[in-house]
Request: fold
Amino acid sequence: MSQRLQDKVAIITGASRGVGAANAQLLAKHGAKVVLTDISAEGEKVAADINQTCGLDTAIFVKQDVSDEQGWTDLIAQVEQKYGRLDILVNNAAILKHASITDEDYSGWQKIMKINTDSVFLGTHAALPLLEKGNGGSIINMSSSSAIMGMPHFVAYSASKAAVRGLTQSVAVYCSQKQNKVRCNTIHPDAIATPMSMEVGMDLAQKGKNVADRTRVMNFICTPDAVANTVLFLASDESSHINGAAIPVDNAATITPPYLPNS
Ligand SMILES: NC(=O)c1ccc[n+]([C@@H]2O[C@H](COP(=O)([O-])OP(=O)(O)OC[C@H]3O[C@@H](n4cnc5c(N)ncnc54)[C@H](O)[C@@H]3O)[C@@H](O)[C@H]2O)c1
Reply:
């Protein structure tokens, strides 16, 4: 296996399952030391499996609520003490809730903004000074196709992901102007086969709602590995001139006009 991330240290949030776990596994296979964090301790097992496959001391797990400011300060201090560097931050943790503008209430809105958007501010704010000390840092923020398209049944989620995009652009320009060699990009997947999308689908089915009516008919569903490979590219020096980009991983879903004939 090639070592595209040799000597790099990465933090991946929400790494107990789904895309976050796939990210951690792939970055580790390519030579990175990976710090998995999650509010769920299931990430202990993901880290142990990585260590079994990639060698002892490749991965550690730290329990973290990404919406807690002090937790970020502590995490970055721990990483600096253990590794003396940080090269890659993947702000991946998020929650999804099925609710329209009339269904959602203010506390539900605030909860989603806190976990999905405030967390990206907190993580980027806390990590940037350490990333800047290196020779080319990469911040990868997991957004969504819902930041680009209207999603009537996921109102707070789509707003939270659009805010992540706005934050990313400003950080990218800040870093470019400061010439600190740190890059900041977003990835915008459409539906991915993970527990997040499955749980929402099951919840809708239990409520007797037609899932297809509330989402869209899709001609493919993305695998976590397809997203992780995009993360790997953005994490590596191969993407050294890509800063501020919004990369869709959606098989053209966000650019397909409705009712376009097939031929
Ligand atoms: N699944 C999809 O269809 C889809 C589509 C587009 C974008 N995304 C985005 O991809 C990313 C990964 O999604 P996934 O599908 O793997 O989700 P997932 O629910 O399978 O995994 C998310 C992880 O985040 C963790 N998490 C939740 N709240 C947390 C908190 N407060 N602090 C720390 N960790 C927390 C969960 O415990 C979980 O392990 C998310 O940012 C999501 O919005 C997912």
Observations:
- The pocket of nicotinamide-adenine-dinucleotide is lined by residues 13-14, 16-20, 38-40, 64-67, 92-95, 115, 142, 144, 189, 191-192, 194-197 (CB under 6 Å).
